[in-house]
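Hi there, hope your week has been kind to you so far. Please have a think about how the structure follows from the sequence. I've dropped the whole record in just underneath, so have a look:

_____
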Amino acid sequence: MTDICDLIHGYEYMNCILRGNFRNNILGLYDFYVTAKHQNMRTAAAFNNINQSTICRSIKNLENRCCFSLIITHNRGVRLTESGNYLFRSLHDYFY
């Protein structure tokens, strides 16, 4: 957990993300990473062999723990917010 904290700017940021169940937090971070990489929730869900609603809920829970938005959905996929883009770049070495 310390490695991830070092990866993302600021202890409060990571503390906010990692509240609650550690396993769910890692899955939420991975679901976010795959969605950001594919820029589409449906494609990310297919990649993970899960339902689109599951990946959507996982990312929404992560956003709720962070208290800010990570992605913006639109009719052709998703777009990362500034915070989402930073988190995606930070997680790249862990999930690549």
